[in-house]
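**User:** I keep going back and forth on a fold encoding question. It is easy to fool oneself when nobody else works the same problem. Could you pick a protein and write out its sequence and tokenised fold? Could you put it straight underneath, so I can go through it closely?

**Assistant:**
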Amino acid sequence: MSLTETTKVKFDPGFSQFSTDFPKEAYSYLDEISSLKQNHQKKFAFTHLESQVVPIIKQCASFQLGCILWGSYLFWKYKNDTREIEGNTVISLSEEEKSTLNYSDEIDFILGFIDKFEKSAKFYLKRSSRIDPAYIKYFESYKQFVKLNDDFKNLKLTSEIKLPDEVAHFENHSEQKLNELKQKIDEIINLGNLENILHISFYN
């Protein structure tokens, strides 16, 4: 079957508009807090940082989970009817740009920060941080996802998508279940609240 315009599917259903960069200076904030002299100052500063950082981490986790779910939908929905993927901007990058592209580094940066942040929360606040532990699983799964797909540098067909272990259960999803996922993703994008992706119960 020839791949015509009508058989193409989107690389991005609309998630990119909600993409958030994790601040590169995040670690320095923790260093600044540790340099404060008084414990009450450290506690106050860390609590303030937590209120700012946790929503960013939640948004990043939502985006990455959304990408995994969309990739899972595309692969299994068109398992027996391969479609061409359109809109993958990574393909159009120069060879030099592709050679330096490594999404895993970004994920490792976030995971490293979360680990340090969690230890700091227990030290300053005597409790766990307000970062949902499930986010770590999403980040680790997304790291596997991008590695398996070579950062999407040559991804052109739905049949070429490789999925992380955490979504192996999608093999058992019916056509109706996959259509339900697509509908929920469309609703989330239309409503403009990507964090709702964390609550649609398709991941597990």
